[in-house]
Amino acid sequence: MCGVRCAVCGVRVRDGITWQRVRMSEKEIDTGTVRPEIALSWRRSHLSGVNPSTSITINTTGVDPNSRLLRAAAPVLDQISQQIVDTGFCVLLADRDGRIVASLRADDRRIRRAVERLGVVNGSLLGEDCAGTNAVGTPLEVGHSMVIHGEEHYLDSFKGISCYGQPVIHPVTRRVEGILDMTGAGARANPLFAPFLARAAADIETRLLEGSKASEQRLFSAFQRVPNRNHVAVAAIGDDFLLTNRTAMDLLATADHVSLRSLAVDLAPDQSRLVTVHLVSGAQATVKVDRVSGAKGGALFTIQEVDRPERAAIPRSRDHRLSHSERLQEELQRARRRVDALSISGEPGTGRTTAVADVVGESSVSWFNATSIAFDGTEAWTSRLIQAIRERDAVVVEQIELLPASVLPIISDLVAAEEGSPRIILTSGPISDLPPAIAGVATRCPTRIHLAPLRERHAEIAELAQSILAGLAPGYRIAPNAVEALAAAQWSGNIAELKVVLRSAVDASSSPRIDVPDLPEDYRVTARAARLGGRERAERQAIAEALKSCGGNKSHASAQLGISRSTLYARMRALDVTG
């Protein structure tokens, strides 16, 4: 038999279209002529552990009748229900998880009952990992519209119907909000399904955009209702909306906006709370949080700085109100004006080399790293160092904690050299972690700068991440939810690790907006998840580990955990588990 093998799954294809055999489970199924995209979907379904004879999983606990998708789609679906009278077709709406969230809109009772017998009702899960190839799960997987003719369905029970699935994409975020599906009995889908659903999806997308504007209007109205009082900061914060008064502009840093938003995550609409927080500036403030109903999670924040009596007589220094980044810039600026020895310390990845480059600028500089001694030998390395001192304006020696004892006197003499000698700049780990002899050299530098680890700079994550993104991918921005997830990480690799994570997120993102799903799996812990109690944290960890060990296959993970797939979905949502 002539033909070639598919590079994706190794199955022989004739003329790139006809699949002679696809081996699944213990048997071979004769597929006849199958489109390549359908064959790939069948392969994904098989790898997800879907049995062709399985029934549909139903989970009604996650269906929110007031979701923004349903609010935007309701009038469009009402109109469609009038247009499909006597056609024998029905229309379904699924959310971004592949869950049916709208009632079946069909006038023909026969098709309605037929679809319901298949288990396709509100709450049904039609993702490919649950229901195989179908016009809801497959468009979600590939990100564009698809027609699925009867025999192309993966489940045997679906082969008597044909469907067309059209993604509903939010005009602002460009993310798929749901799938609009049209279904009819028969071997092939009606060719008019495509233009009909494309127009309907566009109408829903328009209403999603209008809903976003309405949400912003509700936040704006709540903001305007707050009395204008001196020294009281007011901020209205939503997913893509920020409004502050002048006092809030002066008081709040960018990272404070993320911290404030996390205070409203678990509040119900119209619910309030009063908390005391520490701002990036170092100031303590009382914050009243009011969740605004109908504002898509938006909230109003009234912030009043707390005067601490015990410090009333002590003028607060300007440095007390500076973030680490701002203090560092001032220290680097002072270091640039000086010519004496400089020590820059901090954990690996905190930006020691970058800080040195900022200080030396355009000067004539020689760079040395103590790690090179292992390759060059102590004598050759020291000889080059001495030669550089005679020729350069400045000499940089990095990672001095790796210097052999025989070189320390030379470095110590350079640090103590009189004015007019080349400037010596040393980098190392935190001075408190250095051996006494090495620490003794570093502490003799008249100018010392310590770079704090990133885990102590969570309040600056938003600013740092956006700055890094500007260099990696100009025009990209990071969503507040993603900032919260990054702020919950431990960052043992510091800023260098953050750069790697953001580079990965840019590669994974389908739009210029970096959100939680774009982050590497280990960094998708949201602020809400970080606040879970001990038992819930353990449960979340168990689910995450099961999903990881099963390669993301939810069927296998639920079996491993000893729970149903619908329960797994419900707990994943409750505990903010992505996957």
TrEMBL record:
A Pfam family annotated for this UniProt entry: HTH_8
Origin superkingdom: Bacteria
Protein name: Putative transcriptional regulator
Residues in coiled coil: none
Annotated organism of origin: Rhodococcus wratislaviensis (Tsukamurella wratislaviensis)
Single annotated GO MF: ATP binding
Keywords on record: ATP-binding, Nucleotide-binding, Transcription, Transcription regulation
GO biological process: one example: regulation of DNA-templated transcription
PROSITE patterns reported for this sequence: SIGMA54_INTERACT_4 (PS50045)
Chain ranges of the Sigma-54 factor interaction domain: 449-507
